[in-house]
Every structure is written in structure tokens, then in C-alpha cells.
Design brief:
7-stranded mixed β-sheet; 4-stranded antiparallel β-sheet
């Protein structure tokens, strides 16, 4: 069985493992206050072009989302997100468990826009019973989105502007950020993201690390006392240097983007093969997630040898599914899938 279900089927990039072994017996202080975390944070600030940024390392994406949102919001406040946003649909109510409501908006290809945020805020401000409803205080977006799509530079700047107009924080979930930055049609870069967002994170778990996300903060209000919240939410790793070593390695010699380009290239190759075989995409994207629409009969046969994720029913006989490449995907496995796909397409 060859798995294309997600981008964390494998362990970690060999260079990350080598660095962990090399530093294994080094003695360092704990809780992320070691020299490896400090150096990794320095490399991230340099990549973002801003020495004032605060950088904190957490273990996983759900933990990062929950901790950031809980730290930013007061008890009566909520976070705006797309209906398909990870915090709304795939985190078992982690944000709600902290007492903060997710204010879900309709999405288009996984994205929300500035006009939707403005409309929600205006409705709240002009509601005679506004004090009886949850106050919006943060906007949460993912880049890439759950559909592998990307925000344009204009869209991100417009969201940033509307957040500043209404006094909202802008939070970007970057669990797959590397695959977005490396995509052929990408318009964003780390300096732009750091300038537009109050807080974002750089995903490591899905992009070459064993585990770990780097939370990056530009907003001074959010920086204050954040480590208290990391500890309270169970995110302060005693052996914090394990996170620092990994991001230190990923951000040396452009490794983070190099391995992301590998995943995107193989996803492009796979995408083209599906289309050439006559199977359209549910959503157009150039990142490492693709969403082909196939007959259920072909999906059943592919499922004997390949792992994929069911996405949604399209009609009585067709379904949209997700195939996901990663930094570790082998080209020969992609070629094997393409060969089997072509063979099955001839039987339709």
C-alpha cells in the first residue's frame, strides 16, 4: 500500500534526524530557552525581515491554534473562520473548549474575503442586542487552505486592512506554509505575511520535521505573557531544544523551501496525469494537495493499492478525493500511480 492520504505519513527529513542525533548528548537548559531555539528564532526573524518578531515553538497545529486563540481573546470574544477552516471542522472543538466560539463564514475554495469580515463586524456593531452576542475579535485563515488554495497578496492585504479597521487580530495557520510558499502561482512571502498578520505559524510537522510549529508574533499585545499560556495549555516542552534543533535545520540553506518544492512538483505531475486521463479537479490549486473527481468504481480499485482521503460526493457515481504529496514522496510511487490510473481510465 502506497499512502497519499496526508503529508505526515513519514518521519522527518534525514538532515533533521542527523542534527537531532548529533546534538543528542549536548546539555542545554529546558523549556525552549536553549541556544538551538534562540538560533532557530533568529533564522526565522531573518527570513521574515523583522528583528522585532517573537518566535515560540509548539508541538502541533491544533495546539498552536488553540493556544494562540485562547491567549488573544477575552472570554466574550470569538474568532472568524471559513466553514472549512481547520479550527471549525477538524480539531474536535479545541477552540470552543477554551470558551471561545468559532464564527464560521461561507467559503469559496477554502477562502474568505475582507468584505465578508466587514459585513459580519458591521452586523455586530449595529445589532441592538450586540452585548448579548459573541464579539468578533480575530480572523483565522489558512495558507494553503484546506483545499490547497492560496491567498493572493491583494487578498491578504485587504484582510489585514479590514482587521485593522475593526480592531481584529489576523491569524494565519501555516501548517502547510512551505508548500504554499513554493507553489508556482504563489504571491506571498514571509516578510509580507509578517507585515500583514498579527500572528502566524510556520508548520514543521507536515513539512520535514518530526513534529513542531513555529509561532511568529508581530503584535506587541499578543507577545505579552504568551509563554504563560503555552505552559497552561500543556505546550511548554521540557526538552524544548528538540523543536529548536529541527527548525534550526529546516531554515539553514533554504531546506524548508527546497523540500516543499519537491512535493509541489510531484503534485503537479500527478494533477496533470489525472486531467489527461479525463478526470477533472474539484478545486484548482498548485500546492501539494489535489482533489480529483473520479468514478466510484475506479476509486474502489485504486484503494486496493493506494491510500487517499475521501472529500465529498459529487453525484451518484462520482466522488472527489484528496491525494497529498509531501517532502518525502518518492517519484517512483507517483509514476506507479499514474501508470495504474491510465490503465484504469481505459476501462471506463
Amino acid at each position: 500500500m502506497i499512502l497519499f492520504q496526508c503529508d505526515y505519513n513519514e518521519g522527518a527529513h534525514p538532515r533533521v534526524l542527523e542534527k537531532l542525533v548529533e546534538t543528542n548528548l549536548d546539555q542545554t537548559v529546558g523549556y525552549g530557552e536553549d541556544e538551538h531555539c534562540a538560533h532557530a528564532a533568529e533564522l526565522i526573524r531573518k527570513a521574515c525581515g523583522d528583528d522585532s518578531l517573537a518566535v515560540h515553538f509548539l508541538v502541533g497545529g491544533t495546539q498552536a491554534n488553540m493556544t494562540v486563540i485562547a491567549a488573544a481573546l477575552r472570554p466574550h470574544q470569538g474568532v472568524i473562520a471559513a466553514q472549512t477552516g481547520h479550527i471549525n471542522g477538524h480539531e474536535t472543538g479545541a477552540v470552543e473548549s477554551t470558551g471561545h466560539k468559532v464564527l464560521a463564514l461561507p467559503q469559496k475554495n477554502g477562502k474568505i474575503d475582507a468584505s465578508q469580515v466587514a459585513e459580519l463586524c458591521e452586523a455586530h456593531l449595529h445589532d441592538a442586542s450586540f452585548e448579548h452576542t459573541v464579539q468578533p475579535k480575530m480572523v483565522y485563515i489558512s495558507n494553503p487552505t484546506e483545499y490547497g488554495t492560496l491567498y493572493t497578496g491583494k487578498e491578504l492585504e485587504e484582510l489585514s486592512a479590514v482587521c485593522r479597521r475593526y480592531g481584529l487580530y489576523l491569524f494565519l495557520d501555516g501548517a502547510r506554509l512551505g508548500y504554499g510558499l513554493a507553489a508556482a502561482d504563489n504571491e506571498l512571502n514571509l516578510p509580507l505575511i509578517a507585515r500583514c498578520c498579527d500572528v502566524f505559524y510556520i508548520g514543521g510537522t507536515k513539512v520535514g520535521a518530526l513534529f513542531g510549529e513555529a509561532v511568529v508574533m508581530s503584535n506587541e499585545e499578543l507577545k505579552k505573557d504568551f509563554r504563560y499560556l503555552i505552559k497552561q495549555k500543556g505546550g511548554m516542552l521540557a526538552k524544548g531544544r528538540l523543536l529548536g534543533v529541527q527548525f534550526e535545520t529546516l531554515f539553514e540553506d533554504d531546506l524548508y523551501l527546497e523540500i516543499s518544492r519537491h512535493a509541489d512538483r510531484l503534485a503537479d505531475k500527478l494533477r496533470e496525469a489525472f486531467v489527461e486521463a479525463g478526470f477533472p479537479m474539484l478545486v484548482e490549486s498548485r500546492t501539494n494537495q489535489i482533489f480529483p473527481i473520479l468514478p466510484d468504481t475506479i476509486l474502489e480499485k485504486l484503494g486496493h493499492d493506494y491510500g487517499y482521503t475521501w472529500q465529498e460526493r459529487v453525484d451518484e457515481t462520482h466522488s472527489a478525493v484528496r491525494f497529498c504529496t509531501s517532502w518525502a514522496t518518492r517519484e517512483e510511487n507517483v509514476d506507479r500511480l499514474i501508470a495504474d490510473l491510465k490503465r484504469l481510465a481505459l476501462s471506463v
